[in-house]
From TrEMBL:
<feature type="domain" description="Enoyl reductase (ER)">
    <location>
        <begin position="11"/>
        <end position="322"/>
    </location>
</feature>
<dbReference type="GO" id="GO:0035925">
    <property type="term" value="F:mRNA 3'-UTR AU-rich region binding"/>
</dbReference>
<dbReference type="InterPro" id="IPR002364">
    <property type="entry name" value="Quin_OxRdtase/zeta-crystal_CS"/>
</dbReference>
<dbReference type="InterPro" id="IPR036291">
    <property type="entry name" value="NAD(P)-bd_dom_sf"/>
</dbReference>
<dbReference type="InterPro" id="IPR047618">
    <property type="entry name" value="QOR-like"/>
</dbReference>
<protein>
    <submittedName>
        <fullName>Quinone oxidoreductase 1</fullName>
        <ecNumber>1.6.5.5</ecNumber>
    </submittedName>
</protein>
<keyword id="KW-0560">Oxidoreductase</keyword>
<dbReference type="InterPro" id="IPR013149">
    <property type="entry name" value="ADH-like_C"/>
</dbReference>
<dbReference type="GO" id="GO:0070402">
    <property type="term" value="F:NADPH binding"/>
</dbReference>
<dbReference type="InterPro" id="IPR020843">
    <property type="entry name" value="ER"/>
</dbReference>
<dbReference type="Pfam" id="PF00107">
    <property type="entry name" value="ADH_zinc_N"/>
</dbReference>
<dbReference type="InterPro" id="IPR011032">
    <property type="entry name" value="GroES-like_sf"/>
</dbReference>
<dbReference type="GO" id="GO:0005829">
    <property type="term" value="C:cytosol"/>
</dbReference>
<keyword id="KW-0521">NADP</keyword>
<dbReference type="Pfam" id="PF08240">
    <property type="entry name" value="ADH_N"/>
</dbReference>
<dbReference type="InterPro" id="IPR013154">
    <property type="entry name" value="ADH-like_N"/>
</dbReference>
<dbReference type="GO" id="GO:0003960">
    <property type="term" value="F:quinone reductase (NADPH) activity"/>
</dbReference>
Length: 324
């Protein structure tokens, strides 16, 4: 038998159940992957609470790395013995092993270990599409990235710096400010005691920034709009403080003909060729040292509920991984 987390009702971390499950053999197009490490991401809490509704009962988790043990008929993307990683649906990464569509797996280069991959895949591929495709950051631009000491933030701020940007990051404490400075941020705003909108205007000489990357959501959205220069883009990609409330679209014209987008990694990697290209770009910046992956916390997989509590309480920095 294999152990995995499942849940049959929405709620707090206590709804997660660690129990024996039967996997079976891979069917057509599927691969059986034995996990070495599993990644924890904020989106896992959205699925658990029902903010992002899923059909129940359900597995949980979107990111892991390990080894292919078997493949079903018609699988050409991977083979038994391959070291692989993945990020995205279907849910079920919080498990010792699982079946998964083979086309969602990517082979890992030898220079990337499974712990790093499990810490980096979802957050790193998110950083890739945000910085290179949603709004293509150019050398010399100044950008604002909220939650700069979080998992996505640490990767994205290093990557943006590598692309030649001046990076402004927001954080919640002085401790996190030091971490953000060490990971690509030229300017750090501690939003618990500073008005980030005023500080961005001060840093930019009143011009504002061409793009704001906001994974925080409700508490930062309106202030972020006021950080943008005319025709700037608000990239809302998460809801750590709650979902963004409805607002009058007329505000976008009043504040300078602004753009707002709500992208997801699943859309940007829906085609296999895009998935492989995105993962390859991530592995490249890790391999050449432009982006260093910080595993801030590690837990045994069986303690996933406690890890989610820590994540929601903003007690973590960097990426969080589970040891299987």
């Amino acid at each position: 038998m294999t152990k995995a987390f499942t849940y049959d009702r929405f709620g707090g971390p206590e709804v997660l159940k660690w129990a024996d499950v039967t996997i079976g053999n891979p069917g057509p197009g599927e691969a059986l992957v034995r996990h070495d490490h599993v990644g924890l991401n904020f989106i896992d809490t959205y699925h658990r609470t029902g903010l992002y509704p899923v059909e129940l009962p359900s597995g949980i988790g979107m990111e892991a790395a390990g080894t292919v043990e078997a493949v079903g008929d018609g699988v050409t993307e991977v083979a038994p013995g391959d070291r692989v990683a993945y990020a995205g649906g279907p849910l079920g990464a919080y498990a010792e092993a699982r079946l998964i569509p083979a086309h969602r797996l990517v082979r890992m280069p030898a220079v990337v270990d499974t712990r790093t991959a499990a810490a980096a895949m979802l957050q790193g591929m998110t950083a890739e599409y945000l910085l290179r495709r949603t709004f293509a950051v150019q050398p010399g631009q100044t950008i604002l990235f909220h939650a700069a000491a979080g998992g996505v933030g640490l990767i994205a701020c290093q990557w943006a710096k590598h692309l030649g940007a001046t990076v402004i990051g927001t954080v919640g404490s002085d401790e996190k400010a030091e971490i953000a400075r060490a990971n690509g941020c030229d300017h750090v705003i501690v939003y618990s005691r500073e008005n980030f909108t005023d500080r961005v205007r001060e840093i930019t000489g009143g011009a504002g920034v061409p793009v704001v990357y906001d994974g925080v959501g409700k508490s930062t959205f309106m202030g972020s709009l006021d950080c943008l220069s005319p025709r700037g883009m608000m990239v809302s990609f998460g809801n750590a403080s709650g979902a963004v409330e409805p607002f009058n679209l007329g505000l976008l014209s009043q504040k300078g003909s602004l753009y707002v987008t709500r992208p997801t990694m699943m859309t940007y990697t829906a085609k296999r060729e895009d998935l492989v290209a995105t993962a390859s770009a991530l592995f490249d910046v890790i391999a050449n040292g432009a982006v260093k992956i910080t595993v801030g916390h590690s837990y045994p997989l069986a303690e996933a509920a406690e890890a989610q509590r820590a994540l929601e309480a903003r007690e973590t920095t960097g990426s969080v991984v589970f040891e299987v």
